[in-house]
Amino acid sequence: MSYVDEVIEQVVAKNPAEPEFHQAVKEVLESIRVVVEANEEKFRKEALLERIVNPERQIKFRVPWVDDNGQVQVNTGYRIQFNSAIGPYKGGLRLHPSVNLGIMKFLGFEQVFKNSLTGLAMGGAKGGSDFDPKGKSDREVMAFCQSFMNELYKYIGPNVDVPAGDIGTGAREIGFMFGQYKKIVGAFEGVLTGKGLSFGGSLARTEATGYGLLYLTAEMLKTNGIDIKGKTICVSGAGNVAIYAIEKAHQLGAKVVTCSDSTGWVYDPDGIDVAALKEIKEVKRARLTEYKNYRPNSEYHEGRGVWSIKCDIALPCATQNELLIDDAKALVANGVTAVCEGANMPTTLDATEYLQKNGVYFVPGKAANAGGVATSGLEMSQNSERLSWTFEEVDAKLKNIMVTLFHNLDDAAKKYGFEGNYVVGANIAGFEKVVNAMEAQGIV
Ligand code: NDP
Ligand code: 2IT
Questions:
Q1: Considering only CA atoms, which of 246, 231, 238, 232 is closest in space to residue 266?
Q2: Strands, sheet with 264-267, edge to edge from the N-terminal-most edge strand
Q3: Which of 90, 104, 180, 369 is the most exposed place for a label (fewest CB within 10 A)?
Q4: CA–CA distance from 146 to each of 119, 197, 347, 361 (Å)?
Q5: Ligand number nearest to the C-alpha of 126
Q6: With a threshold of 0.90, does the pTM exceed it?
Q7: 92 CA from centroid of ligand 1 (Å)
Q8: Considering every ligand atom, which ligand is closest to the CA of 209?
Q9: Residue range 286-316, pLDDT digits in tens
C-alpha cells in the first residue's frame, strides 16, 4: 500500500468518530500524493506524514460559569496546538454548540497549511468551546469568556500561541478574553488578535477575511481572463466573513444577491444592502427574517437554498459541509464559473470533485480565506513594534499577500503538472514550507 493510503487508513482507525478531521486529512494527503511519491522512502523513514497528521498537543478543559438565574453551567474548552514548525501557534477560537474534538482537529490541521500559505511566520492551531453565545446576555458571555481564559492562559502567549476569532467569537468575546488574560498574567501583550482598536487591534482586521476572499477571487479570475465587474455572486452566511465579502464584492462592481444564517436565507435581486445587514447582524444580533423590513423587494426563505440561485460566482462563507453534491449540480446547471471558499471546508469532497470535473474554478478555504489570519499576523507585527498602521497600509499589505498567495499556488499546481487545480496547488505550496522547516529542526 502506498504511504499516503497507509497514513489515511491510520488516521481513520486511530481517530474514530471524527469525520471532519478524516475529510480534511484525505483532501490534503490526496493532493500532495505526487510530492510524497517522489520522496516516499525518505518521508517514510522520517515518519513525516505521521508527524504532520498528529497534533503536537491537544488541550481539553472544563469551563464552569454562572448564568443569569444563578445556575452553574459547564462547557468543554479546547485548544489544538497542531504544528509550530514555522512560527508560534496561531488560529481562531470557535464558540458554537456543534464544537467537538474532531471539528477542532480539522480546523487546526487546515490552519497549518493556510498559515504557511500567507508567507508569514505562524504555526497552526484552533480552539473553542461548545458554548453558544446566541441568546446569552453580555454578562453571561463575559462569565464564560473569563472562565475559559482562566484555563487557556496557561498555554498561550505572544511568542507561544496567539488565538483569535472564528464562528461565534467576535470583538466582544475577544475583549473579555483579553481583559481576563491581562488580569491573570499581569502583562499587556499581544496574546490575542482581533482586539478592539483602542487596545492593540489592527485596522482592517474586521474586514480582512471577506476582503481577502474577494482580492484572491478577482486575481484568480483575472489570471483566467475574466473581469469580476458585473458578475452575479451568491454568498452564504451572514457573519463576519460574509458581510465583508459582500461589501468588497460591491466595491469591485459585482452584485451579491444572497446571504443566509442557520435558519433561513435571503434573495435580493437588487443586491444585498450591506448597511442593513450590518445593522441586523452586528448591532441588533438579530435573525435574517428582519431583512425584509429594510428591503421589501427581497425574499426570505426558511431552511437552505442559496445555491439554487443562478450566479457566476459562489462564495460559501458560513460553515463546514454546507455546499453538498446536489448544490454543486445546481450551480453547474446554472452556469457557475467559480467557487471560492470563505468558510473552512464548506464544500464536501464529492461536491469539490464534481465542480472541478465540470470546469469550475475552485479555490479551497485554506487559500481563499487566508486574509483573516494574515491580517492577524499584521496585528502581531504592529503589537511588537508598538505602532498602528493606517487602514490603507494594512489593506494594501492584505491585497498584496492575497495576490502573491494565489500566484504561489497557481505556480505550484503548474510545477507538478496540475495546472488549474488550485486544491493541489494550495496543499502542495502550504505543505512544502512546513516540511522543509520540520526536516531542518530534527525529530522534535
Ligand atoms: P460568524 O459567527 O460571524 O458567522 C457565521 C455565519 O454562518 C452566521 O451567519 C451563521 O448563522 C452561519 N451558519 C449557518 N449554519 C451554521 C452552522 N451550522 N454553524 C455555524 N454557523 C452557521 O463566523 P465567521 O463569519 O467568522 O466564520 C464563517 C466561516 O469562515 C467559518 O467556517 C470560519 O471558520 C471561517 N473563517 C473565519 C475567519 C475569520 O476571520 N472570522 C477567517 C477564516 C475563515 P447563525 O448566526 O444563524 O448561526
Ligand atoms: O480560520 C481562520 O483562519 C480564522 N478563524 C482566523 C484565525 C486568526 O488567527 O486570525
A1: 238
A2: 299-302, 264-267, 255-260, 232-236, 313-316, 338-340, 361-363
A3: 180
A4: 33, 21, 34, 43
A5: 2
A6: yes
A7: 12
A8: 1
A9: 999 999 999 999 999 999 999 999 999 999 9
Distance between CA atoms of residues 361 and 355, nearest Å: 8
What distance in Å separates the CA atoms of residue 400 and residue 35, rounded to the nearest whole number? 28
Strands (E) in 131-270, as ranges, are 161-164, 232-236, 255-260, 264-267
| Cα 232 to Cα 218: distance, rounded to the nearest angstrom | 13
Q: Whose CA is nearest to atom 3 of ligand 1?
A: 239
| Mean of all residue pLDDT scores within the chain | 98
| Distance from C-alpha of 347 to C-alpha of 329, rounded to nearest angstrom | 12
Q: Which residues in 385-398 are b (16+ Cβ under 10 Å) and which e?
A: eeeebeeeebbebb
How many angstroms separate the CA atoms of 380 and 364, rounded? 25
Q: Closest Cα to atom 36, ligand 1: which residue?
A: 343
- Can you state the percent helix, strand and coil of the chain, rounding each to 5? 50, 15, 30
Cell numbers found for residue 211: 476582503
Cβ-Cβ contacts under 8 Å for 218 (sequence gap 6 or more): 228, 252
User: 19-31 vs 3-14: helix axis angle to the nearest 10?
Assistant: 170
User: Would you say 236 and 306 are in contact if contact means Cβ atoms under 8 Å apart?
Assistant: yes
- Cα 239 to chain centroid, rounded: 12
Domains of the chain with bracketed CATH: 1-54 (no CATH), 55-187 (3.40.50.10860), 208-368 (3.40.50.720)
Contacts of 194 (CB under 8 A, 6+ apart): 164, 165, 169, 170, 171, 174, 201, 205, 206, 376, 379
In the numeric block, which cell numbers belong to residue 416?
507538478
- Dist. CA 292–CA 271, nearest whole Å: 13
Q: What is the pLDDT of residues 224-275, one digit of tens each?
A: 999 999 999 999 999 999 999 999 999 999 999 999 999 999 999 999 999 9
35 φ, ψ (degrees, to nearest 5): -75, -40
Decide if 126 is catalytic: yes
Instruction: Report the amino acid identity of residue 200.
Output: G
CA distance 334 to 307: 10
Q: What is the DSSP letter of 169?
A: B
DSSP annotation of 281: I
